Amino acid sequence: MSTAQDDEELRLRKLHQYDVLDTPKEDAFERITRLVTAVLGVPIAAVTLVDGGRQWFKSQQGLNVSETPRDQSFCAHAMLGSGPMVVRDATLDQRFSSNPLVVGDPDIRFYVGIPLRASDGTPLGALCGIDTKPRDIGERELEILGDLADLTMEQLELRLLATRDSLTGAMRRGHFITSATRDMAMARRMGVPLSCLMIDADKFKHINDDWGHAVGDDVLIHLVSAISGELRSSDSLGRMGGEEFCAFLPNTNLHGAMQVAERVRGAIEAMRIETPGGCVQVTASIGAAELTGLDATPEEMIKRADIALYQAKHTGRNRVAA
Q1: Same CATH topology for 4-163 and 173-321?
Q2: Cα–Cα distance between 3 and 8 in angstroms, integer?
Q3: Which of 13, 284, 309, 311 would bridge with 198, disulfide CB 3.0–4.6 Å?
């Protein structure tokens, strides 16, 4: 049975797959929040995504901050509901009457939020409208807000499709490098370690030759699932080409990366892919590298991990090297 902590870890992993947190404003989302303010006649609207300890605004109107603590978030409550959450007067609601956003700036009184959910139902955040005076809301307004929430999720899904490999769901190479560049900048700013893994399926050409490309594709899908199962929500995974993948591991030194790599190796070795022609098994070789002061780009880290990967292959495959 899953625990609340397990569920939250899975939710955060799903949220981070969209790779939208801390990204610049985008017109598509700005138009949606402008429509919310116009349709509802409210001074404040936001597309809110609820991260581990904060709510972050992908778009907002009428606010002068980009995020607030999660424990102050109305949207963290709204996203868990099955429909709209309406708070007509926050000062009369026990959940929010002492909230700093109610007793202080921006003096929230009225709130309405529609959950933003991934296609599998995972709650990500909410589309909300806020007023500084108590009020009510009609059914027609709620219907329109629901339509705008659907449009918001369509934009998030389109964004995801544009950055994800269509077969495996791993990041496309270009987008992965952009994400890794942000990881490097953050590691240096915070003075914490950063490592990467290069992961390559062993003798994958033989699988395609012996079993066919459809089975080969299925193997890659299972491979990414096995890798992702050993990564944290803060880690990222990209498809670098063919059967080769790269993972960036924030706040992880080389020793920790080797431990992750060994777990990934074991998870891949344990896979059993059933096909009409029989059971297919695969192993992987993995190379690891840690960020150094000489690395100017993610590609330099990846190159060292790649060298370690080929060392693993040349010494027997199905192993980890650094």
Answers
A1: no
A2: 9
A3: 309
CATH of domain 173-321: 3.30.70.270
Instruction: Convert the pLDDT of each residue in 124-152 to its tens digit.
Output: 999 999 999 999 999 999 999 999 999 99
Nearest-CA neighbor of 126 among 178, 236, 50?
A: 50
Q: Which of 119, 124, 121, 113 is nearest to 40 (CA)?
A: 113
Residues annotated catalytic, as ranges = 243
- Extended strands (E) in 11-153: 44-50, 54-61, 67-69, 85-87, 110-117, 123-131
CATH architecture of 4-163: 2-Layer Sandwich (3.30)
Residues of the chain short of pLDDT 70, as ranges, are: 1-3, 6
The amino acid at 222: H
Domain residue ranges of the chain, discontinuous segments joined by +: 4-163, 173-321
Q: Name the pTM for this structure.
A: 0.68
* Contact (CB, 8 A) for 25 and 60: no
